Amino acid sequence: MKDWSPDELQKNLEAGSKVFLKLWKKGCGACKLSIPALERIEAADTHGLKFGQICTDDHPEILEISESHVLPVFFVFADKQMRGHLEGFKGI
Description:
Layout: E1 2-3, H1 6-14, E2 19-24, H2 29-44, E3 50-55, H3 61-66, E4 73-78, E5 81-87
Parallel strand pairs: 1-3, 2-3
Antiparallel strand pairs: 2-4, 4-5
């Protein structure tokens, strides 16, 4: 999963890309626990999703835009619109 800036996210959305986005924070245990599951999801993707993650330590403004304060938080975008999101990670 690539590290993105909010600008990179915006470019992908404007291009109409299907996007899977993770917002995370350094030192967040649940954020770290999600890594293996997300690697499997990315490897198994058959929908042409672009996977990116934004660190909220580096880009705190993204939390205001997302309207979420639970981390990690995951979003799926298609056709320039958010199609779903999930807050938190409990493992699989």
